[in-house]
Amino acid sequence: MASTCVVGLQWGDEAKGKIVDLLTADHQIVVRYNGGANAGHTIVKNGQTFKLSILPTGILSSHIQAVIGNGLVVNPVRFLEEVDNLRKAGISVGANLAVSDHAHLIFPYHAEEEQQGSGAEIGTTGRGIGPCYMDKVSRVNGIRVGELLRPEHLRERLRSVVPRKNHMLASLSKTAKQFDADALCDEYLGHAEKMKPHITDTVHLLHQALKAGKRLLFEGAQGSLLDVDHGTYPFVTSSNSSATGIWSGSGVPAKHLTRTIGVIKAYTSRVGRGPFPTELDDGPTGIGETIRKIGREYGTVTGRPRRCGWLDLVAVRYSAALAGADEVTIMLLDVLSAVDELKICVAYVLDGQRITDFPADAFLLDRCKPVYETLPGWKVDISGVRKASDIPAAARRYVDRVAALVELPVSIVSVGPDREQTIFMK
Ligand code: GDP
Ligand code: IMO
Ligand code: MG
Predict the structure, then answer these.
(1) Helices and strands in the chain, H and E counts
(2) What are the helix (H) ranges across 45-123?
(3) d(CA 397, CA 410)
(4) Rounded CA separation 312/360 (Å)
(5) What is the spatial distance between Cα 7 and Cα 263, in angstroms, rounded to a whole number?
């Protein structure tokens, strides 16, 4: 049966949440397959703004079954907090939310490990994501969501894991926090009671849904360039955040995916450290700051100012190929209305040589200088445009140039956070 995937083709925050929300009407199930509460997906719906970190965006639509797949790392405190906030906002959350028993659990020692360890070096969100994935692959320290339902077993596991964690934390810093296995177990058993109705074998659930002819929508978190294998390593997140993560992170076979939508901003943003060839580091009155202010480019999760720069199509061509994207959507085009003249990066110069293949190796990328094509700006407010035929000529030229350079159709252009501020190009 036909399934769709929405994946970011840059370094995250491409406005994937808005696209997922727009597509829910044609689907019955929305599945997150990677990451955790490091994501921040903003959706503006009926005048209300929702910020979702761990819950799939589909939870906002009453006909959708939302699924947190096995590929995620789940902090029960954040999970329950988000469920509570939604209920307060009038969204019903019950059997419409399933969380995989195979997803891994984040404990407070993960955030402490991140703080005392390499978090600052990478510029992480501080949510314990990396250390939890490290424990997953270590096998001896990983604890899964399903283990919450076996109290005595959970206590035993924590009694064996926590002393190892305390030892490691003490070796990182004399001031590092220490943890008590029994206290943690009691706390997590409290969370287990509330999470229990949602915990299930989501692979089984998804396979049943496919058999019943239901349409699945996969919601990528982060962006392809933050993928632990294919992104700008080591300045990446710890999961497969490109479309490659779908099969492992949900258990749904690749053959079911029939439409892959790559989401890009009309420019580029990045939070945290790492190379960014088209970054506009041009001071408090420069174009970078203008884009940041108008696009409200501050992290949803951490509030950090996002680094902003020109659209990098060398990077996008790479991630679109990686995803096997069928189409791209261009988001936040309205933000560029403030800029006189626009630049699109079409190649790099690396050690004197012009290249058009993206070097995902951070150390090579750091040495790349962008080669730009310049296009005129449009300098008029486009946030009220609703039809492709009403897009000003210069803005249309920008969109067409992106399509030509990425060699993919542009299916949607977004000119504001609201659902209505969307132009369907086909
Ligand atoms: P995600 O993580 O990919 O879902 O993206 P974020 O939610 O972190 O960041 C995108 C931000 O842009 C959110 O605040 C959206 O409400 C907002 N947004 C989405 N589309 C548009 C648009 O076309 N124009 C403007 N100005 N803002 C938009
Ligand atoms: P959404 O889904 C943008 C970045 C962090 C940091 C790196 C590693 O909203 O697009 P981590 O905490 O994951 O170990 O941090 O990844 N990062 C994101 N950047 N959008 C996100 O999610 C991100 N999730 C993680 O800033 O550079
Ligand atoms: Mg975000």
Answers:
(1) 13, 20
(2) 76-88, 108-116, 119-122
(3) 12
(4) 13
(5) 6
Supply the residues annotated as catalytic.
13, 41
Q: What is the pLDDT of residues 251-305, one digit of tens each?
A: 999 899 999 999 999 999 999 999 999 999 999 999 999 999 999 999 888 888 9
How far apart, in whole angstroms, are the C-alpha atoms of residue 155 and residue 182? 7
CA of 380 to the centre of ligand 2 (A): 32
Task: Supply 181's token pair.
Answer: 């296995």
Distance 61 CA to ligand 1 centre (A): 19
How close is the Cα of 39 to the center of ligand 3, in Å? 5
Ligand nearest to the backbone CA of 117: 2
CA dist 241 to 7, 89, 190, 219, Å?
Answer: 8, 29, 31, 10
Residues 6 or more apart whose Cβ sits within 8 Å of residue 184 = 107, 108, 158, 162
Give the pocket of ligand 2 (CB within 6 Å).
Answer: 8, 11-13, 38-41, 122-125, 127, 129-130, 221-223, 226, 237-238, 271-272, 300
